[in-house]
Amino acid sequence: MLGDNGVIEVRHLTKTYRMGKQAVVVLNDVSFVLQRGEALGVIGPSGSGKSTLAKLLLRLEKPTSGSILYEGKDITQTRTLSLCRAIQMIFQDPTGSLNPKMKVADLIGEAMLIHKLPIDVDFWLTQVGLATELKTRYPHELSGGQKQRVGIARALAVQPKVLICDEPIASLDVSIQAQILNLLMDLKKRFQLTYLFIGHDLATVRYVSDRIVSMDHGRLSKI
Ligand code: ADP
Q: What are the pLDDT digits (tens) for 140-151?
């Protein structure tokens, strides 16, 4: 049950994909509570169902069965603007997740515009450690780390409660991975965020997480 401190509760979540005549169970009876202010790490090998869990939490896909509660309300079938604002995602590949035809200012500003929030691109660039001059650049004019910082600014700019980080450093150069992890940890504290941090590398997940669960063939277990 969702206690006073729970933000998200997942109950018996199952996702099955049809592959021809076969049904493949990708998530199998997954249940957990994400506590307010914690960073919950989800570790597991490639193909274990981690990204599918993220997609279901963002309600980009519907579960086959089970439910998702946000602050005590069943949101399994709901995708309102305010819920989209509350639960944001940091993607693995910043290049693929940023529209290449938009300048940094518009990439970040668009998110605030959609949610009718005051547009303050400079503030969010500063929060993620980027110079405000970068706002006139296109994604291809940025480094991998800078692009990921723009992705983080874009997610943060709508002032979410929960950030789902799906392998946010996996596509980055090793030399800048730690910087992005440290940034995420600083931001968590600064904006009192709750994280679901997905990864395949135990050392990385352990570094940022208060608690870790492991995913294997669609099943979640404590470690
Ligand atoms: P992870 O993020 O842990 O690498 P995924 O959630 O991406 O795992 O994938 C879990 C399994 O679900 C994989 O075997 C993948 O091939 C399968 N899968 C993911 N999305 C689909 C889909 N849309 N249709 C069919 N199978 C899928």
A: 999 999 999 999
